[in-house]
Amino acid sequence: MGASKLQALWNHPAGPKTIHFWAPTFKWGLSIANVADFSKPPETLSYPLQTVVACSGLIWSRYGMVITPRNWNLFSVNLAMAGTGLYQLSRKIQHDYHSKTEAEITNE
């Protein structure tokens, strides 16, 4: 039973014998790097970079579902990219918003 499933994965059109498997697999490095940046102070985050990460993740996760055959590896890595990018953007926006209110309070 296990050998047949392994054989099916190996021979799948988006399996390990194709670039359609390896490109998303290595793209996980971007999501992992963004998760590692969760510990960075929010003022060091970049709006353009995190916007691109989030939008790219959303666009390519949709693409992973409309192509034939469906590429679940592509879908999942880009969903993770979108999630980490949106989380980083929310951290940056929250930091910038609270920094302005604290500065206004200090000036009063």
From TrEMBL:
Its main location: mitochondrion. It is found in: Mitochondrion inner membrane. This is Mitochondrial pyruvate carrier. GO terms for biological process: pyruvate import into mitochondria. PANTHER family: UPF0041 BRAIN PROTEIN 44-RELATED. It is a multi-pass membrane protein. GO terms for cellular component: mitochondrial inner membrane. It comes from the Eukaryota. Mediates the uptake of pyruvate into mitochondria. Keywords: Membrane, Mitochondrion, Mitochondrion inner membrane, Transmembrane, Transmembrane helix, Transport. Belongs to the mitochondrial pyruvate carrier (MPC) (TC 2.A.105) family.
